[in-house]
Amino acid sequence: MATRLLSAGYSLTVYARTPAKASSLQQKGAIIVNSPYDVANKSDIVFTMVGHPSDVKSVVLGYNGVLSGLNKGGVFIDTTSSDPVLAREIAAEAGLKGCFAIDSPVSGGDIGARDGKLAIFAGGDSDVVKWLAPVYEVLGRVTYVGESGCGQSCKIANQITVGGNLLGLSEGLVFAEKAGLDVNKFVEAIRGGAAGSMVMELFGKRMIDRDFRAGGFATYMVKDLGMGVNGGEGKDAVVLPGAALSKQLFSSMVANGDGSMGTQGLITVIERINGKSI
């Protein structure tokens, strides 16, 4: 995402908690600074992409955080898959400073980020989202989904859907192989029918080729599904048996030491259940 912004001609100031991860961006013209405060102080628009809601809170609201350095009228955009309640808290804090906060997590993995084809779910002030359109267009397709926190709720719902698709694809591939089918022909046969999906297009070949490199870590899927399964109380509570099962299976990946695999590695859990050595 950062590389695409640089290639589009935007000047970029970057803070990375692991500095080595930003070295390639520095070679492409990004300015590297020492804190989120420094990024915000030098920028009109600030993006974050970190791991967990606790990371977002630290980087944005903590000491030397983004909001401490953001100038009046500045815009903060969180693309992390995070907590809707935290997104609303950040938006309220930004408003007190005369700034704006948009929660806009993304979906599409490493390929979508590279190709500028991410699905982007934006929550917050609709006029600010419209103003950000030229920036979002570099990254993918943005959909405004409602007030602050709605972007995060949309991403959680997205992950519930993706998790179910990954589980179905994993079980279909394992069944097809056990039945003696050529799994490549199996995927080719069904991709144009009702079973076809973007999950299949992104991950089907990777599963068959045993390419479990991460576009999105399995451990983060546990986090995202957990926010759906555990979120809401009283009238807001939703019973999600499929998401609960998906979370349990992705948790098995983590327990097996595979939390840093891509989410397509879910097939290894189904294979293990069926007695295949991994």
Defining key terms:
278 residues; mainly alpha; three-stranded parallel β-sheet; globular; NAD; 6PGD_dom2; oxidoreductase; 6PGDH_NADP-bd; 3-hydroxyisobutyrate dehydrogenase
Mind explaining what this structure looks like?
The model has no long low-confidence stretch (mean pLDDT 95). β4, α6 and β5 (100-103) form a beta-alpha-beta unit. α10 (150-178) crosses α15 and α14 crosses α15. This protein has helices spanning 2-7, 23-27, 36-41, 53-61, 66-69, 84-96, 109-115, 126-131, 133-139, 150-178, 183-190, 198-208, 218-230, 241-255, 266-273, and strands spanning 13-14, 31-32, 45-48, 75-78, 100-103, 106-107, 118-123, 140-146. It is 53% helix and 11% strand. It is mainly alpha-helical and 278 residues long. It contains 15 helices and eight strands. The strands form three sheets. Strands 3-4-5 form a three-stranded parallel beta sheet. The protein is globular. One of its GO terms (molecular function) is NADP binding. InterPro entries: 6-PGluconate_DH-like_C_sf (IPR008927), 6PGD_dom2 (IPR013328), 6PGDH_NADP-bd (IPR006115), HIBADH-like_NADP-bd (IPR029154), HIBADH-related (IPR015815), NAD(P)-bd_dom_sf (IPR036291). The active site is at 155.
Q: Describe the main β-sheet briefly.
A: 3 strands, parallel
Sheet with most strands: strand arrangement: 3-4-5
Helix content: 40-55%
Instruction: Kindly estimate the percentage of residues that lie in beta strands according to DSSP.
Output: 5-15%
Question: Roughly how many Å apart are the termini?
Answer: 33 Å
Please tally the β strands and state the result: 8
N to C succession of SSEs:
HEHEHEHHEHEEHEHHEHHHHHH
Shape from CA axes?
globular
Computed CA radius of gyration, to the nearest angstrom: 20 Å
Mean pLDDT: 95
Residue ranges: pLDDT <50 for 5 or more in a row?
none
Number of helices: 15
Secondary-structure content class? mainly alpha
